[in-house]
Design brief:
This protein is mainly beta. It has three helices and 18 strands. The protein starts with about 30 loop residues before the first strand and ends in a 7-residue tail after the last strand.
Amino acid sequence: MTRPPFVPEDPQTAVPAAHIDAPVDPLFLSTPRVSTFHGLQPLTNASGFFFEREGRLYLVTSRHVVIDDVSQHFPDRLEIELHIDGTNLTRSTGFSIPLYDDGQAVWRQGLDSGGDIDVAVVEIDRSALPEATVIRAFTPDHLQTAFNEVVPGQSLLVVGFPLGFHDGLHHLPVLRQAVVASPYGIRFQGHGYFLTDARTHRGTSGAAVVMRDLGAPTDGSAILPWKLLGVHSARMDMGNRDLVLDESLGLNCAWYADILLTLTEAREAVAEQEVVAAPPAPDVVTVSDQADAAAPVNTRTAKGKGSPS
């Protein structure tokens, strides 16, 4: 089977991305709807996005989408929706991604001094994809590394499937506006995320948090003219909030997207790092950082991994 076109990091080996005639920004084709299953039993809906590195393709989502002890959420596979026609976006197909291989978890997740990182990646077997699959994937070049370019109140977009809602005819996500609500580049309360101010819902977990790449060509030639800042994870609220008198904060956690550089490293390189894992656990990669955890505040997070199917 011919593998679908992709754009590796090395320009000398680059293969042109699948042509898209449909009048849609490529951002919409970077984000598939994610459904979780246990066998044939549907469990939840969530969001995710594609990330490519050195020719390998990954699905990125929140860790609590693939496993969550607190809510007893233990799916054994994910299913994503793929476009198979760049001209007619109504044509799509489902694609199943197993979460275990011979009892061993296949996704990878991170751990740092602040604790578990609510991001997971699972590699997608390109050879198993339909030949005409239309995908746009973020790469390491899309990561926002210049912190000073992200100003307080910076306008962002969260690309996902709130409550599972989407354009069901064309199989496209929806966008929610957000702004940066904490200093970008600072680990909020010592954890590897920053805050956004946005209206979000269950089903948005795993969504890409992006801003427009002002340095990208404006003639429409850019494959994906967006900067990837974070991975939306959860809503944040005060644990002592009066549910009658006080509104929710409307704030959210977005994990810094540079964790993807660690989670998508070749396994040979990861083997040289400290890896905390034991069957049937996934690869848990320890991430070094220099930020000391700040004193905890009385807050809570509402993960909302997905809406009922």
